[in-house]
Amino acid sequence: MGYYIRPAVIKDVVKIRRLISFYAAKNLMLPRDQNYLHKLLANYSVAIANGQFVGTCGFRLWQPDWLEIVSLAVKPEFQHRGIGTALIQSVINKGVSLGFSYFFTLTLVPELFEKFGFKKIGFKKIAFKAQADCRHCPKNDAGPGRGSCNEIPLELKVCA
Ligand SMILES: CC(C)(COP(=O)(O)OP(=O)(O)OC[C@H]1O[C@@H](n2cnc3c(N)ncnc32)[C@H](O)[C@@H]1OP(=O)(O)O)[C@@H](O)C(=O)NCCC(=O)NCCS
């Protein structure tokens, strides 16, 4: 089965939202609404296999020079074929082309990111992210990395 990664386009938004909602219902991802995805559309990539949408990944930019990898998801029936890895690679490539060298993510699947050289970090290192977002998170009942929060922060420094 062949697949390719391309930038997301407006007609992908509904499919991206549905896939993220599917995993959010299983508590594996945070839900993202149509408005959020519409605003960040240019930051998203999608994977296409057999002519259909099968996965997505996006990024957010933080001051002064951090790029956060977000919304990584591949449809269950298309997993374990390297699509998740290819989506991460495409976002890293995009970030590098934009001049970013500090990447981070919050994930339940650190193994996948460690293959790229990502290392686990404490939430303190990305306090800007925790301050901006964690208070809106349904898993935040005892602070970042505590209580119901099972997200693992990782970072990657790419040498220019
Ligand atoms: C995580 C995810 C995107 C991986 O997509 P994928 O296309 O299967 O990824 P790849 O084929 O490139 O790599 C798969 C590897 O990732 C790792 N991996 C994937 N899911 C894993 C999990 N739940 N636990 C541990 N390792 C996992 C394994 O090393 C796996 O290797 P294998 O195929 O030999 O078993 C996909 O499983 C998914 O959509 N999961 C649900 C949503 C989610 O958890 N998103 C991550 C939020 S950051």
Question: How would you portray this structure in words?
Answer:
The protein has 160 residues and is an alpha+beta fold. It has one domain (3-157): Aminopeptidase (3-Layer(aba) Sandwich), CATH 3.40.630. Helices cover 28% and strands 28% of the residues. The chain has five helices and seven strands, in the order E-H-H-E-E-E-H-E-H-E-H-E. The protein has helices spanning 13-24, 34-39, 83-97, 110-114, 127-133, and strands at residues 3-7, 45-49, 52-62, 66-74, 102-107, 119-120, 152-157. It has a seven-stranded mixed sheet, sandwiched between helices. The longest helix is centred in the middle third of the chain and has 15 residues, at 83-97. It is globular and about 40 Å long. The model has no long low-confidence stretch (mean pLDDT 94). The structure holds coenzyme A (COA).
Secondary structure: helix percent: 25-40%
Secondary structure tally, helices: 5
Strand fraction band? 25-35%
Topology-level CATH name: Aminopeptidase
Question: What's the rounded overall pLDDT mean?
Answer: 94
Q: Output the CATH class name.
A: Alpha Beta
Could you list the spans in which at least 5 consecutive residues all have pLDDT below 50? none
Side-by-side strand order of the widest sheet = 1-2-3-4-5-7-6
In CATH, what is the homologous superfamily? Gcn5-related N-acetyltransferase (GNAT)
For the secondary structure, the number of strands is: 7
How does the major sheet shape up?
A: 7 strands, mixed
- What is the approximate shape? globular
Using the CA coordinates, give the radius of gyration. Answer: 15 Å
| Total domain units | 1
Order of helices and strands: EHHEEEHEHEHE
The hetero molecules present are: coenzyme A
Structural class: alpha+beta
CATH architecture identity: 3-Layer(aba) Sandwich
Distance between the termini: 34 Å
Pfam families: Acetyltransf_1
Protein name: N-acetyltransferase domain-containing protein
Domain N-acetyltransferase: 3-144
Organism: Candidatus Falkowbacteria bacterium RIFCSPLOWO2_12_FULL_45_13
